[in-house]
Design a protein that fits this description.
The chain has helices spanning about 95-110, 115-135; strands spanning about 5-10, 15-30, 30-35, 40-55, 60-75, 80, 85-90. With about 140 residues, the protein is an alpha+beta fold. The protein has 2 domains: about 5-90, Sandwich (ATP Synthase, domain 1); about 90-135. It has a 5-stranded mixed β-barrel. The longest helix has 18 residues, at about 95-110. It is globular and about 50 Å long. It starts with a strand and ends with a helix.
């Protein structure tokens, strides 16, 4: 059996996930990064994307959450993700996410080189939600 690390995904309003994981992969600000048990301690920012983890509970299964940026603290025995928004596959309305993506892409096109940070963030958030619903469990 692989060594395990405790994963916590927390938003301001709820603890979205708590469990043991063999591997946690998160969208770090400088690129995706993975954490295993006994990882060297570190703190990093997260960009909007998908957090994936191979969790145990009898069988190993993959859980995924769309996250809207945030922070990840890695300790030898624990990974803590703090984010404003985190949604699991069950919480995502696919049609709403598709509509949000279309609306955000149209808004991004309308900016034409102006400050488009908010529009890019909305595109990334819609894409992350769709990515979670499209991947097999």
């Amino acid at each position: 059996m692989a060594a395990l690390t405790r994963l916590s995904i927390v938003t301001p309003t709820a603890s979205k996930f708590e469990g043991d994981a063999e591997l946690v992969v998160a969208p770090g600000a400088a690129g995706d990064l993975g954490a295993l048990a006994n990882h060297a301690p570190m703190l990093t920012t997260l960009r909007t994307g998908v957090v994936s983890a191979n969790v145990t509970g009898g069988d190993v299964k993959r859980v995924q959450f769309a996250v809207a940026g945030g922070f990840m603290q890695i300790l030898p025995d624990r990974v803590i993700i703090l984010t404003d928004r985190a949604l699991s596959r069950e919480e995502i309305d696919v049609e709403a996410a598709r509509a949000d993506l279309k609306r955000a892409e149209e808004a991004l096109v309308q900016k034409k080189g102006a400050d488009d940070t908010a529009e890019r963030q909305e595109v990334a958030w819609a894409q992350a939600r769709l990515a979670v619903t499209a991947r097999p469990v």
